[in-house]
Design a protein that fits this description.
Length: about 200
Amino acid sequence: MDPLPPSFYDRDALDVAADLVGALVSARGVTLRITEVEAYRFPGDTANHARMGRTARNAPMWGPPGRAYVYLCYGMHHMLNFVTGPEGHAAAVLIRGGEPVDGHDIFATRRPDGRCDGPGKLAAALGLATAHSGLPLDGTIAVRARREEPSLVAGPRIGIDYASEADRLAPWRLADATSRQVGHRGRLGVHPATPPAATLPPR
């Protein structure tokens, strides 16, 4: 199966996020089925890393779509994001969780406890670091379409206390309701996710 084309990512981050749950991401000998994501939209999302403008760190967010944005959080954990929207739009989807489907031996050496229910754990499982930021998602990091529709649940994003109340409460974290590799499950709703960006007010 070929990697998803750049046109897949050239949409609102929330639309892309909904379609990424269940997709396959491969890097450095491991393939994961994506189980949890967060959308960071633009403009107007006060949780977005690009809310204050372009910097050396967030430069990949500004496009083109279909690239990786990898940053270091708290000097400890790498975080993998997929850049979305048109070039210059600075939106992305954070990949928060995954289930191993290939490269199990390598996965076990990187994640001995078997857990991949957080963004730092996911990037570690894939062996990714900031050196991979800006790469297209069809090579070292490759993303392929999901094989079946997941059962989605939604809830507020994690670790964005600095954002406005509306953005802290926005249900822009989406997850597979059936997966054990999902973090902060108690903050996710029990009902299917609201149909994404096309039915939401424009940002």
